Amino acid sequence: MELFTYYRSSAAYRVRIALNFKGIQYDAVPINLLTGEHKEEKYQRISPQGLVPALRLDDRKIMTQSTAILEWLEESHPAPALLPDDSYQRGVVRSWANIVACDIHPIDNLRVLNYLVGELGANDEQKQAWYQHWIKLGFDVLESQIKANPYCHGDQVSMADIYLIPQVYNALRFKFDMTSYPKILSVYERCNQLDAFIQAAPENQPDAV
Amino acid sequence: MELFTYYRSSAAYRVRIALNFKGIQYDAVPINLLTGEHKEEKYQRISPQGLVPALRLDDRKIMTQSTAILEWLEESHPAPALLPDDSYQRGVVRSWANIVACDIHPIDNLRVLNYLVGELGANDEQKQAWYQHWIKLGFDVLESQIKANPYCHGDQVSMADIYLIPQVYNALRFKFDMTSYPKILSVYERCNQLDAFIQAAPENQPDAV
User: For chain B, N or C: smaller number of CB within 10 Å?
Assistant: First the structure.
């Protein structure tokens, strides 16, 4: 498989963790979001949205959108599992993942921040306040809900950890104050001791600057 | 089951369609997002995020986040299916659903538009431009990718239709020009001939104004 990725993309980071966790070999194809490589026609043939990640399964099949890719990985490579067996608990894990996937990351990501500054003339303080507002809403709820013993959903790594860790990495990069989130931080530290997470980290990617 | 819902919420609308489509009876519990009922302590005990939808499965189990709820519905009530049998095609359908769930709706929803106006002082024109920018990016890709013969993924209703129709309803309410999207519009019109979609429409909810 080929993963079209960018080292700092949270969504690509999620898929890198899952591929590593399930022991699936892949070739990383870096797409430079800073130089606009994702907007070139060549890449638009891979991902019509011009976003990373995209996963090439074979000569004819490419999958986009990290959540679709992660569900496909879980269905096609079920062991080790990233969702619990219990039907209701699967929903709980997915709801925590969705808080990051839908209610934090899309609002706080690079293209939205660029629009705020470029089109609406937001200054640095306003941009930072925006970022902090949305991540605080999401992290407040996650901190109150996750188990953190030691992972989000208990003693097994789950989809919830796979979404949370890249978002925490991003939060720290934006100097978001994490002192109110001891459970989230403990999950972050614990996950970052695992090979699957370490090898997926931005600084360990071939395109890291 | 009890569905905590608001008639105009796109995310609640998705779940209403799916419940109807699968023939699952539920009681609607309206939560008024305009009067701030979702921010009251009573509702925060149902949904710590203070968002709709939330689905009460029984006395002890409540599920939040529409994508988690829809995946749970598909797993627990598999017929009629909302995802194809083929593993790759399931990913394709989910990727289209995710374009709406992650890349349009969270950026264009009420709480974000309220922040733009209230905190950043955006005027009506800027708010409208913001709305149109993000929906155009998403709809351009969906228009080029979906099959629309007659539904997004062919002759069966799928998750993709369940995400798309509430977003189109919202677009029309914001007077977004849909003339460049004949395939999306044809799916919209076709779905709105089905009972599951008609009964889930905002104007047919008990709390519709």
Answer: C
